[in-house]
Design a protein that fits this description.
Length: about 400
């Protein structure tokens, strides 16, 4: 019996991508950051081969890599059919693409449209990793999913990660706008020997002007160098008093408390104080009312004749954040059931002790049982349930 296994060689569904860094269309200073992409499939980077015919992938080299290219470097992304791509050598002799036909194990057809990254060979020589480097730029990551969101708890927690081989291009401090850079997850299938340091690398540089790659996924990032002075400036500007209340007369306001409108459970409207968790002052120890709810954390400030709702809000926020995670909610239900079970066992033991405490001497309990049971048997009061067919 012949078993055929098919896989994708030219396309990748977006649902296979778990996350990217930096996030798509993010803006900031990423000059010291390296882009990477995380995928659900833990084996994806090794499912195909960089060397044709190496079905076992004995070298363990991933067939994908991540390229970070700025908008000034002359790369472009275009769409074409697979049959046009495999005919590159015939129709466009100055552009290099190694595959001349669809691999037999491919699930795509010649008419399927794919994303293709095209760049000058000179740029490729500057930014492309060698085969040894490609092997170091992909790995499998194991993540504990227990404390993740509800829709992720049941996942295995094994992801594949592909990292770029260069820092993200960034605009200079003098530039007025951030520099746009694109990150491309490209296929290296068929590029064995054509990467820097390979046997055919010199031939590639002399023969071709452009090079093409199948692009599985791409996203854009905007980066601008802010310099070290910007960080010092931000820190100095933080000296503005707690929540901007530097000149406030009240000590409560100076410590970061703000008066907010408060609607009580009965529908009445009042004003209460609230202080967030990021206040730069050590909070005073408070005496709380009895109870295991948010209302028990309401503090009355007699000096101002007003309630402080800070601890009540913190308690309620913590409760909601905990219940948001399915794992924590299930653990709370489990503990509650265990408490009910233990209480039922203790109550049962108490009742048994109450009923049996009159039997002080050895043998009294056995004599009592024999007497009561024999009496019920004699009086026909201790009988089993009668079936319907026996009644008739």
């Amino acid at each position: 019996m012949t078993v055929l296994s098919f896989c994708r060689h030219f396309t990748l569904p977006e649902t296979e991508v778990y996350s990217v860094y930096p996030p798509a269309d993010a803006q900031g200073c990423y000059r010291n950051s390296v882009a990477h992409i995380t995928m659900w499939n833990k084996t994806f980077p090794w499912e195909n081969q960089i060397q044709p015919g190496d079905r076992d992938n004995r070298q363990g080299i991933p067939f994908v890599t991540l390229l970070s290219i700025s908008e000034r470097e002359g790369a472009c992304l275009r769409e074409m059919a697979i049959n046009e791509l495999t005919a590159t050598e015939k129709n466009e002799p100055d552009i290099f693409y190694p595959l001349t036909k669809i691999p037999p194990s491919s699930s795509e057809t010649e008419q399927d449209r794919v994303q293709v990254l095209e760049m000058p060979v000179s740029l490729f020589c500057q930014i492309a990793p060698s085969e040894e480097e490609v092997a170091l730029l992909a790995h499998v990551k194991k993540v504990d999913m227990y404390h993740k969101a509800d829709d992720l708890i049941s996942e295995e927690g094994m992801f594949s990660v592909v990292t770029a081989g260069r820092f993200i291009p960034s605009a200079n401090l003098q530039d007025q706008i951030a520099l746009k850079s694109s990150h491309y997850l490209v296929s290296l299938e068929g590029y064995h020997g054509y990467l820097p340091g390979g046997a055919s690398f010199d031939k590639l540089k002399k023969t071709y002007q452009y090079i093409r790659f199948v692009c599985f996924y791409s996203w854009d990032v905007y980066s601008q160098d802010t310099g070290d002075a910007a960080y010092k400036k931000i820190i100095k500007n933080l000296d503005c008093g707690a929540f901007g209340q530097k000149d406030a007369r009240s000590s409560m306001l100076k410590h970061g408390y703000v008066p907010l409108e408060h609607v009580t459970r009965s529908g009445e409207k009042t004003v209460s104080l609230y202080g967030g968790p990021l206040s730069g002052f050590q909070p005073e120890k408070k005496e709380f009312l009895a109870g295991y709810d948010a209302d028990g954390r309401i503090v009355y400030e007699p000096e101002y004749g007003i309630f402080d709702m800070s601890y009540a809000c913190a308690w309620q926020m913590g409760r909601l954040m905990a219940l948001h995670h399915k794992s924590i909610a299930l653990e709370l239900i489990k503990q509650r059931r265990n408490r009910v079970y233990r209480a039922a066992v203790e109550q049962s033991d108490y009742l048994i002790r109450c009923h049996l405490q009159e039997f002080t001497e050895e043998g009294d309990f056995e004599a009592y049982c024999l007497k009561e049971l024999l009496t019920e048997l004699v009086e026909n009061s201790l009988i089993g349930p009668v079936k319907e067919e026996e009644r008739g």
